[in-house]
Amino acid sequence: MLADKVIVVTGAGGGIGRDIALAMAQAGALVVVNDIGASVAGEGSDAGPAQRVVDEIRVAGGQAVANTDSVSTSASAARIIASALDHFGRIDGVVNNAGILRDRFFHKMGDEEWDAVIKVHLYGSYYTSRAAAPHFKAQQSGVFVHMTSTSGLIGNFGQANYAAAKLGVAALSKSIALDMQKFNVRSNCIAPFAWSRMIGSIPTETPAEQQRVARMKQMTPAKIAPLAVCLTSDAAADTNGQIFAVRNNEIFLISQPRPIRSVHRSEGWTPEMVASHALPALKAQYFALDRSGDVFSWDPV
């Protein structure tokens, strides 16, 4: 499905990114495997993870090169895209998968914890996408696949930085889709449910927590790869600006914000009327959705 297409996968040294990179190569793509080899918190660096994935691809008969530049600055993200051009002569797709975690309850979160996570997830997705955009425009084709999260789409405890970044990624993807569709450039998001080191610290102290983690371990990173490959291929040429989720063997299309109920008063509203009429009417719709399972129905990952 991806014969001779050049695809950059960031954060591809392990977990979801590794399996996406392997699947891209298996589908015929020439892959730039980007990973700085940092810890889950984004600390340190190691060229080993990216190179090991490249070695796996080459042993299987594919073509790939390693890149260890960070997505978190404009200059280094530009070098990631340049790596594709230098080695393979073009760039056809970017999978923005790189990520770190600095979890903390909001009232305890420090500025550095906020900045570091926003920088990698949101700025990183912007920087790599922006570096690829002129090439996509010039060749009148290109694909972005961004990793968002239900932590942003739905919410989660102790992840205000990560959730804000991931919801921002969804908005960024939508804007890219609108701005660049006239150049035949597509941009979509995946919210993955998968067991990886990014969520490996989930507590397992109670039987319920142990059962939850046992279920989650069945959701391997490889389950995400088929959708990523498809979205990058020409088979998804009519798919743009969407948000998908993958949970084990299920693929979901995620709804995007739309008005679900309105109230109108021809005389206008006072604060008291809003409290006595508007909010109760709107809340009734919210609670109806909540009871139906359409609100806060998934464990965020």
Description:
- This protein has helices spanning 15-26, 48-59, 74-88, 111-139, 150-153, 160-180, 207-217, 225-232, 271-292, and strands spanning 6-9, 30-34, 63-67, 93-96, 142-147, 185-193, 243-247, 250-253.
- The radius of gyration is 21 Å and the shape is globular.
- Strand 7 and strand 8 form a beta hairpin.
- The model has no long low-confidence stretch (mean pLDDT 89).
- The protein contains 9 helices and 8 strands.
- It is α/β, with parallel strands linked by helices and 301 residues long.
- It has an 8-stranded mixed sheet, with helices on both faces.
What is the count of DSSP helices, taking H or I runs of 4+ residues?
9
From the alpha-carbon coordinates, what is the Rg to the nearest angstrom?
A: 21 Å
Helix content: 40-55%
Helix/strand structural class: alpha/beta
Question: Largest sheet, described in full?
Answer: 8 strands, mixed
Mean pLDDT metric: 89
Spans of 5+ residues with little confidence (pLDDT < 50)?
A: none
Strand content: 5-15%
Secondary-structure element series: EHEHEHEHEHHEHHEEH
Structural shape: globular
How far apart lie the N and C ends?
29 Å
Give the strand tally.
8
Largest sheet strand order = 3-2-1-4-5-6-7-8
